[in-house]
Design a protein that fits this description.
Elements: E1 8-10, H1 19-28, E2 34-36, H2 45-54, E3 60-62
Parallel strand pairs: 1-2, 2-3
């Protein structure tokens, strides 16, 4: 995919990304080491689980102020 080499992504305060969008991101970015989603109101437990499931290199996860 076009983002298969992406290592860091910051979607902080992005209010319109859905848990399905996070799942697609996680499936497409296996080399992701840093993911910041502070203040994302649609960030759910399901979305966080998908990041853990598909992004085995993830070292830093920022979910401050998420629902």
């Amino acid at each position: 995919t076009s983002c298969s080499y992406l290592e860091s992504w910051d979607i902080s305060w992005c209010m319109h990304i859905t848990e399905n969008g996070i799942r697609i991101l996680a499936e497409s970015c296996p080399k992701l080491t840093t993911f910041k989603a502070e203040g994302c109101t649609y960030m759910t437990n399901y979305a966080a689980i998908q990041l853990g499931k598909h992004c085995s290199k993830l070292l830093f996860l920022d979910l401050n102020r998420c629902s």
